[in-house]
Amino acid sequence: MKPANLLILMSDEHNPKVMGCAGHPIVKTPNIDALAARGTMFSSAYTTCPVCVPARAAFAVGKYVHQIGFWDNADAYDGSIPSWHHRLREAGHRVVSIGKLHFRGHEGDDNGFSEEIIPMNIIEGKGDLMGLVRKDLPERGLSWKIAKLAGPGETPYTAYDREITTRAQIWLREEAPRYRDKPWVLFVSFVCPHFPLVAPADFYYQYPLETMPLPKQYAQSERPDHPYLRDYSGSFAYDRYFDPDKLRKAIAAYYGLCSFVDDNVGRVIRTLEAVGLAGSTRIMYTSDHGDNLGARGLWGKSTLYEEVAGVPLIVAGADIPRGKRVSTPASHVDTYPFIMACVGEDRPAMYEGHPGVSLLALARGERPDRNVLSEYHGMGSTTGAFMIRHGKYKYVHYVAYRPQIFDLERDPEELRDLAGDPAHSSVLEDCRARLFAICNPAEVDARAKRRQAELLEAAGGREAVIRRGDLGFTPPPGYPAVFG
User: Number of helices and strands (H, E) in the chain?
Assistant: First the structure.
């Protein structure tokens, strides 16, 4: 690709099914849809980890979580492993972040950016210490927040996203024109549609409550019975606090927040066009992970279903195919080589053990012989969980529990687990072997838990972190933390 500027737009917890361009029948995302129409959309894209902190560390470094060892929401990126920000800054590019990072945030940490504008990092430089407890899981004290708060209104998150949007518009107008010698990268990172499920009125009321669909497999009799899901729902008891009215309000608010994110995306892109930089800037839109949104009675993240491990991933601009949809599985590790190529730094010195394949190669039809991976080692789980895509199959491996396998061609909603079907035993074994060719799940699980045990001891032990309580969600800059 010819070197050009790059604008990366990242949201937080955007279910990849909840976009117009993904075929959603209700949700309005006209700006994201327009970006997909003039670029390439990856319809089977995955996060490296379905929770914020490890996902963002892996996105920064361009490697899988088990390669870098930032395991959970209390073990955040600290700049110690070179990121694409470090590499590009060292090569003379201006690399600026605006908004959520969810890094460690200690004074003196060098995250590799030329400038960090209103960054949001983990609380107190410690994050979610309760997530370090990986056995006899405590119930989260603030699980009631998702249901109780659901509805129309404003929150610190919506205010923060408006400020992020404004700061991005200012940077594009006042700073971007100053950097003409080498392409710049602007990383604009929003916090919505992450809960609290409170959407600004203009967006919430686009979705009448009587039209809100019931989440799939929501009835108690329909919910899958798997020990991993029991662990998670027992610790994050979100669904206990829902009634039919709150359920409809929560879904409407999430849809409204997706439209709110879309509106902010549109404002930033229109500013890029207004200042005459659209022709010399490529754009990427993605999210750190998705959201269960009530499916199977689950809320939040931390599972490996498509709604959560899947992510929206769209790229557009010069040399990128227009109006194309790529079904070949893609991963956030593939964004690292794409970023390097975008700004003209696609050379061997920029890579060291990076497993990604450039999104441009995938967009142009390359089908690499590999399996993309997502893994989880954090809050609400007692065992490591690993997912790979192999052709039409999704295989989910739990170190301590029985596996799952889904045929995503015949069953895209993952309603039927085929792991117990003798007709699929050979597929199960093949997928297991392919996962073990990437990593040894038991070794990775043990390594994660050793690190978490060390951090737990340093924090005063199990009872101390339980007394500290549940944060619910990280406050943005300037807002107090409220534990419960």
Answer: 15, 16
Q: What angle do CA 426, 427, 432 make, to 5 degrees?
A: 100
CB 117 within 8 A of CB 161: no
Please give the DSSP secondary-structure letter assigned to residue 310. B
Residue 367 in contact with residue 44, Cβ under 8 Å? no
Element (H, E) at 391: none
Residue 305 pLDDT > 80: yes
pLDDT at residue 272 tops 80: yes
CA distance 409 to 22: 16
The answer to which of 32-41, 396-405, 465-474 has the lowest mean pLDDT is: 465-474
Give residue 241's identity as a one-letter amino acid code.
Answer: Y
Residue 386 bridge partners (DSSP) = 375, 397
Query: What are the structure tokens assigned to 471, written together?
Result: 């944060």
Give the 3-state secondary structure of residue 254. Answer: helix
DSSP 8-state class, residue 30? H
How confident is the model over 182-210, as a mean pLDDT?
98
Kind plus residue range of the DSSP H or E element containing 88: helix 84-90
Quickly count: other Cβ atoms within 10 Å of residue 355's Cβ: 19
Say how far apart CA 35 and CA 15 lie, in whole Å.
17
CB 66 within 8 A of CB 375: yes
How far apart CA 150 and CA 294 sit, in angstroms, is 13
3-state secondary structure of 361: helix
Model confidence band, residue 252 (pLDDT cutoffs 50, 70, 90): very high
- HSE-up of residue 164 (Cα within 13 Å, Cβ side): 32
Q: Before 477, cis peptide (omega within 30)?
A: no
Q: At what angle do helices 244-274 and 30-37 cross, to 10 degrees?
A: 50
Output the six-digit token pair for 273.
């066009």
- Judge contact between 312 and 287, C-beta under 8 A: yes
Q: How far apart are CA 450 and CA 366, in angstroms?
A: 39
Read off the tokens for 354.
Answer: 């990076």
What mean pLDDT comes out for the span 70-84?
98
CA within 13 Å, CB half, 394: 29
Look at residue 473 in the predicted model and tell me its pLDDT. 87
Amino acid of residue 219:
A
